[in-house]
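Researcher: Structure prediction, please.
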Amino acid sequence: MKKILWVLLFLMTGAYLVAEKIYLQKADIEFGDGDTFTANGVVIRVLGVDTPEIFNPDHGIMVNQYLGPEASFFTKHLIEQARSLYYIPHKNDIYSRLLAHVFVDDELLAVKLIKAGLGYETVSIYGDNGYPKLASKVSDSAALVGRPNFTNPLYWRRKNIKRK
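Model: Predicted structure follows.
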């Protein structure tokens, strides 16, 4: 009986997480690299994956990382061809980007990038961000596919970003 009362209290206070899906219009998207894009002025950073970098002098990236343009094109192509496109927001990171799980035709964009060999999983570094089932899908796909054929962007950035 006590357990039932706690559950009722929990539900009545609203102290539970409901994943909010926010649908995107493809026409409102500006593309960056493979794991970042802008939608309606909001910079969205895809959770669970790190793709190779592309030339971006504003961020001190003066050359493309190997497979960077391919990852960027892959994300752009998937989104442009999508029948359904939405994200579940998490929070803003230290760069003011919105960290979010992005879904293309109901499949995680992070998983699609990893399966294509265009991304390193980041769950093992940053954790599940409150979404253990989604994080597990990302980790499982990375374990299945293996290590991508490019330097992990985390390490590549340390060597190649020119600080102002």
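Model: Strands lie at 22-23, 29-31, 36-39, 42-46, 49-50, 85-92, 98-104, 107-108, 120-121.
Researcher: Thanks, that helps.
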